[in-house]
Amino acid sequence: MKELYSIFTLQIAKCNRCIKKLKQEEMESFDLKGPHVSCLFYLYKNDGPLTLKELCDVCDEDKAAVSRAVDSLEKNGYVACNSKTEKRYKSPLFLTQKGVETAKGIVEKIDRIVESAGEGVTQENRGIFYETLQIISTNLQRMCDKYGEEL
Asked: What pLDDT, on a 0 to 100 scale, did the predictor assign at position 91?
């Protein structure tokens, strides 16, 4: 069991480091950082506006990081918010034309990376892997919830 723990934790950590590095390197051409990428990706994939709260939930990032990313994206013309509501956290955010074009390029890069990362893995094994990873993630979250922390 000790060997399984070691393999699991080391490989997950290694994947996480590689993903962060790829995000950083691949997104330099867009002059964007990791949280910007996540915001653009999920706004694009959602096919409609999302509030800041909804964006935090789908990005699985903390409110402050997403808020800073959205502010930057808004200042640079990728994202807009038409609502005059005082509660910005509940106002719908949508991609501008520049945001849509950039997000499309990001999605294409992500698709290529995911395809390359899964090289040599059959569709059946890929499906089993993602299903298993989801179960493990849910179980770990349930265990963390006992400590009053959501990750």
From this structure: 85
